[in-house]
Amino acid sequence: MDSMSLADASFLYAENETDLHHNAWLGIFEGPPPTTEEYTALIAAKLHLIPRYRQRVRFVPGDLGTPVWVDDQHFNLGFHIRHIALPAPGSDDQLRHFFTTLMAMPLDRGKPLWEMWVIDGLEKGRWAVVSKLHHCMADGATTTGMTTILFDADPGASIAEPPPWAPGPAPTDQELVQAALASSQQTGENLTTRYAALMSSLRQRGDEVGAAFTSLESSLAEPLDIPELNGPIGPYRRWGWVQAPLADIAKVRKRLGGTVNDVILAMVTNGFRELLLARGEQVTGRTVRCMVPVSVRDADDEAGNRVSAMYAELPVGVSGVLDRYSRIRTQMDALKAANQALAGDVLASFAALQSPALAALGARAASQVTSPVNTTTTNVPGPQFPLYALGRLMLENWPYITLANTVRIATTAFSYNGVVRLGVTGDHDSTADLEVFTEGVRKGLSGLQRARARSAARGEPVPPPTEPADR
């Protein structure tokens, strides 16, 4: 029995019929498709490396403690691996539609919170895997780690015999309550010590923490500049794709300065600019507020969620490509210099000192309020080497990001084997024009490439690099 952190549990508390907190990705593989038995054997051989895949969630009565992970007494791998074929012709549009259908289906909380779908019938003899797991299990970085465990870097890797496994005893509700009360008593006894240690750490980093909170307050103090982008969301999604060679993005970054993440934010900025203009909105001088998640995971952190955020104002009202990029780069440099993400990490540390019942109440209430941002853009570096399933090469890996609160469009980037792929999620009811946004994101990179070429032709000096350049 393993208790969740409050950060992990918050994704369960905040979930409702329109906000399903899934971490998901779509992998497309070269053929021929494996049989259900072959793919199931592959995953069975790796289960011991990801214990959460055989554990289910148990809620403590009365929220006296955070939910706990317990072994599933009736674990059945066949329930979690499904096999289906698309009707001809098996196009990318059909695949995306099926994917969004899966994303609208909640995971069964009475079983381990993950599933995989093997999809046959794709064009050109390809096949696909949809991996869907609950956000309480993993953040983006952890999900990437799971992917590299489940698949192989060696195309000739053999399937190992899975080690024996038997579920541990299932706790009763009474035992869950007793364990929670015992933990609460221990936490209460240590609370003063933990609080004193946290305050001591903050005092030692006083100027740094002060700058971080000043930066955070500055970012969120003003109301949204373009509230038209926000509103109620429904239970269904649209999903768009954009991809670019990592080398192309790196060339832009090297010539114009900044980071890969700056280039991605500039692409997203152009997407919103073109979307707003197509909708007849006035954009001059306006900005789109974007939450940029930042991993605060230490090397020794276990699985789960360790994420803070920075808050950028994307300058959609600036028409010049280079001016837009320069403003994004300067702004992101300032947020990093102020260590704005530290403020969120500190707030999470204080939140961890509160009672689980209060945390649950707060998370559920927060899920009903208006979002303080217009959008979210994540960037998760993935493996820059090929992965294989049963000797079949993973050709593409497309990421998915959930929507929450009143955010109607969000973007996530994932780099795999030399290609950056962006998955754009839109609310189905309010973003019928999502393709306008994704096309704008594509044009955002081509515009930067033309600006890079002009800069190089004029022999302009290259700005000093921003570290780390790969994020």
Protein architecture, described:
With 471 residues, the protein is α+β, with helices and mostly antiparallel strands. It folds into two domains: 2-173, Chloramphenicol Acetyltransferase (2-Layer Sandwich), CATH 3.30.559.10; 206-379 and 401-457, Chloramphenicol Acetyltransferase (2-Layer Sandwich). It has 13 helices and 15 strands. The protein has helices at residues 6-13, 36-44, 77-80, 92-103, 140-150, 173-204, 206-220, 246-256, 260-278, 321-337, 340-351, 356-366, 434-457; strands at residues 2-3, 22-29, 55-58, 68-71, 81-85, 114-120, 127-134, 237-245, 288-295, 307-314, 375-381, 388-389, 392-400, 409-416, 419-427. The chain has a six-stranded mixed β-sheet. Strand 6 and strand 7 form a beta hairpin. Helix 1 packs across helix 12 (356-366), helix 7 (206-220) packs across helix 11 (340-351) and helix 8 crosses helix 9. It starts with a strand and ends in a 14-residue tail after the last helix. 42% of the residues are buried.
